[in-house]
Amino acid sequence: MENDLADLFLKAAKRIRRHQVERLAPLGLTPAQSRALRVIVGTEGPLRMTDLARRLDIVPRSATTLVDALEADGLVTREPDPANRRSLLVRPTGEGLAVRARIAGTRREAAREVLSPLSDEQRETLRDLLTVIDAAAERDRPGRHGGPHRHSGPRPHDQAERS
Predict the structure, then answer these.
(1) For the domain 12-129, what is the CATH code?
(2) pLDDT given at position 158
(3) Are 41 and 97 in contact (CB under 8 A)?
């Protein structure tokens, strides 16, 4: 039963991702860029690149690649961190804020389409179940609460942040 459930879950996730990719294509964004922009816009004030990587649960180099693309499209800017010259801060531009608003509408449309077969009660049940699964996965994830992280030992960017 667990295998069937896992297969159904993964199939649904792939379908949702496919909808998201299709909806984001006219905006010229990938799902990863969309997620990065969502985090940047959702942060009050500028965000350190290392903090962005941490929030996205990606390595700093991958965050740099995402921000490079967003900056090239005029959606974010980078500037030196006055508190730490080795760090960069990223913030949304006016265009980035506008695109983020369009992304939010696109996500709502895609969710409505994918979830349309479900009743309101079923959607609420699904939300509750996914919240429980997500909380358990976050709690059990390596690197949380002193557990081992996928990166062993201190990373150079972490040392720079502590200095």
Answers:
(1) 1.10.10.10
(2) 38
(3) yes
Average pLDDT, the chain: 85
**Residues 29-67 pLDDT 10s:** 999 999 999 999 999 999 999 999 999 999 999 999 999
Separation of alpha carbons 131 and 106, rounded Å:
22
Calpha distance 108→95 (Å, rounded): 20
pTM for the full model?
0.72
| CB-CB neighbours of 29 under 10 Å | 24
DSSP output for 126-155: HHHHHHHHHHHHHHHSTTSTT---SS-S--
Question: Has residue 106 got a pLDDT over 80?
Answer: yes
Listed in sequence order, the DSSP H helices in the chain are: 2-24, 31-41, 49-56, 60-72, 94-115, 120-140, 156-162
Q: In terms of Cα–Cα distance, which of 82, 52, 81 is closest to 66? A: 52
CA 144 to chain CA centroid, Å, is 18
Does residue 20 register a pLDDT over 60? yes
| Among candidate residues 78, 81, 77, 70, the one with its CA nearest the CA of residue 37 | 70
Phi, psi of 113 (to 5 degrees): -65, -50
Name every residue whose Cβ is closer than 8 Å to that of residue 43 and which is 6 or more positions away in sequence: none
